[in-house]
Amino acid sequence: MPRNILPVKLNEIREGLVSDVLHNGMGVILVDNTYPVKLVDAFLGETIQYQVTQVDRLSAFGQVLQVLKPDSQRIDAQKAYLLTAGVAPYVNLSYDGQLNLKQWQVQKAFAAHSVKVDVAKTIGTDQPTHYRNKTVVPLKYQAGQLVTGFFDRRDKVTLVPMVDYYVNQVQIDAAVGLVRDVLAQFNTPVYDDGTHQGAMRYIMIRRGYYSHELMVVLVSHESELPNEDEIAKEIAQRVPEVTSVILNHNPRSTNQQLTGDNRTLWGQAEIHDTLLGRDFVIGPNSFYQVNPKTTEVLYQLAADVAELKPTDTVIDAYSGIGTIGLTVADKVATVLGVEVVARAVADAQINIANNHITNAQYVTADAPEQMQRWKTEGLKPDVIFVDPPRRGLTTELMDAVVDMQPDRFVYISCNPVTMARDSAYLLAHGYQIKGSVRPLDQFPQTAHIEAVALFIPNDDTSV
């Protein structure tokens, strides 16, 4: 078929079998075995009647009209608004079904890179809804009312109003509504992307799962909000558990939600929470895992596969505020952390002091460069932990690991696609995967998943 003749037409109604589910949660129907049509709320093996809503040369998008042959694990959660906004693409799949699908997706990712490995069953949670300890919510005046929610994934202009976000802690959802009402009370101007006028862009809420300390961050295009002192005092009076009200100045015309420019309007500049018995300080910009219950399971799993010894020297790369390294510090001889974000390292230093840890040091540096520096200085780590962003590891970081030759390299990933890619590189450069890749469901109702793998040198017989 010529490339300019597409196998589907806009608005036509078709039927097809879902043969894939992408890592953004969208099901895929292949037309003529080559042309993908992507669908929300379509699961593996289902037969779907759909309408084509968008067409381009490489792929199309469709709207599910009817599920003709459903997955045996399909349910009706009666929360279509979550699909409209893209908040919970797996909401109509039972939780067991979600765990099975995520295991399959990890298997698929490794198979795509010809990495033969056993993928264990996905570790689930007993709290698959209302678990997130952080949210960043846009707001907009619609029909004369100040509305909070998320934008319609189709037009990206209409805000889908929400009260129950389904994945946030219920206290966070309540706080979003209360803060919105306070802003409406003061007729606070909201930023408009078209005119570049206005102030408020987002409301961010963070809450300590164990501490119950709650932070409100008002993200503003302007450096000052009208009536900001009165707004902060009203929030402090009306929002339960509030410990901190902060203004984040974000004048940038990008999708970046927060900048590093924070000013405390009321209360403390940070909140605290506990992770595996350690106290952590959490600021507006701190990277801190959003599912506190499964984070403890995740980090304990990483420590377990590392088979830590009291004599071990551990490197915590991409260390953030020190959550991984500091939770294992009492099990090893030395922890060395490296993180390129200076504010995160400053928080790590506070966390070291608050927890009276004497065997950990954290430095601000590019991780591959610092690891090469440590190697030149004669450092030989026994264990390296990495927990990189979704884009995965750089070649430079992996080369640094290979050069340092740790006995155990523990890879914690939030993206099995990049994890599989990086695994192929490590396998080609002298390492092997010991045991299974272990998926863990850190983000129920969504397509995201964490996984842990242990790499050891090919000639390693000591572990």
Could you please describe the fold and organization of this structure?
With 463 residues, the chain is an alpha/beta fold. It folds into three domains: 1-71, Beta Barrel (OB fold (Dihydrolipoamide Acetyltransferase, E2P)), CATH 2.40.50; 111-124 and 291-457, Rossmann fold (3-Layer(aba) Sandwich), CATH 3.40.50.150; 134-275, OB fold (Dihydrolipoamide Acetyltransferase, E2P), CATH 2.40.50.1070. It is built from ten helices and 21 strands. It has helices at residues 80-85, 95-112, 170-185, 228-238, 292-306, 323-328, 342-354, 367-376, 395-404, 416-427, and strands spanning 13-21, 27-31, 35-39, 47-55, 60-69, 134-142, 145-151, 159-161, 200-207, 214-220, 242-249, 262-267, 271-275, 278-282, 313-317, 334-339, 360-364, 383-386, 408-413, 431-440, 450-457. The strands form four sheets. It has a seven-stranded mixed β-sheet. It has a seven-stranded mixed β-sheet with strand order 17-16-15-18-19-21-20, sandwiched between helices. It has a five-stranded mixed barrel with strand order 1-2-3-5-4. A hairpin with a 5-residue loop joins strand 1 (13-21) and strand 2. Helix 2 packs parallel to helix 10 (416-427), helix 3 packs antiparallel against helix 4 and helix 8 (367-376) runs parallel beside helix 9 (395-404). The protein is globular and about 65 Å long. It starts with 12 loop residues before the first strand and ends in a 6-residue tail after the last strand. The model has no long low-confidence stretch (mean pLDDT 95). InterPro entries: MeTrfase_TrmA_AS, MeTrfase_TrmA_CS, SAM-dependent_MTases_sf, TRAM_dom, U5_MeTrfase_fam.
